[in-house]
Amino acid sequence: MPASLAYTWLGHSTFLFQSPGGRRLLVEPWVASNPACPEHARNVGALDAILISHGHSDHAGDAASIARATGAHVVANYEICLWLEAKGIVNTMPMGHGGTVQIGGISVTMVNAVHGSSAIESDRLVYLGQPAGYVLRFEDGLTAYFAGDTDLFGDMRLIGEIYKPDLAFLPIGDRFTMGPAAAARAVGWLGVRQVVPMHYGTFPFLTGTPAEFRALVEPTGVQVLELRPGETAR
Ligand code: NI
Ligand code: MN
To answer: What angle do CA 115, 119, 125 make, to 5 degrees?
Structure first.
């Protein structure tokens, strides 16, 4: 039987993907201080690439340390790549919205997100470009949309139309991103068969719940994959 995609939720918005072709991608390098990451999952092992949607510390906080430890390529916007290069990271793959890069046989396309992107360095706010989402087309054709941190936006319809994703990873926690109701609307616009909720429950102010999300999405026939941190889905 050919291998299929496997992905492990490391809590919050951090996922470790093992592609059908055996590539290991870490999306949102935040594990060391991620309170939702199980202790046994903090060592992510060998990686081919690290993908970063925006500069906030709950997504990119461990980018430099993991890139240094693994030697993995880092896919991110230009500003985040420059920021990491200043920390001595060499294997960066800067890109912009609408662009596609290849990681082995996987196509990684950067798409829009409605959010911010910055980090605090020595008590100063550093601007880290425009926030993004990613469309990942794996070796077997399976296509996933990883939204990053974002509100619902109308061009999610275009992402559905152009890339025809099978699977989506959507934030539902509210406050800093869309909540369950808007995320449920996104599911319809994207046309996916399966959806993984993320960016909820990590902190008390992220009040959106998978239960609210499921109640809105499951009646439409789309499968909601509610993972526990550390759990792997295939
Ligand atoms: Ni953010
Ligand atoms: Mn966030």
So the answer is: 105
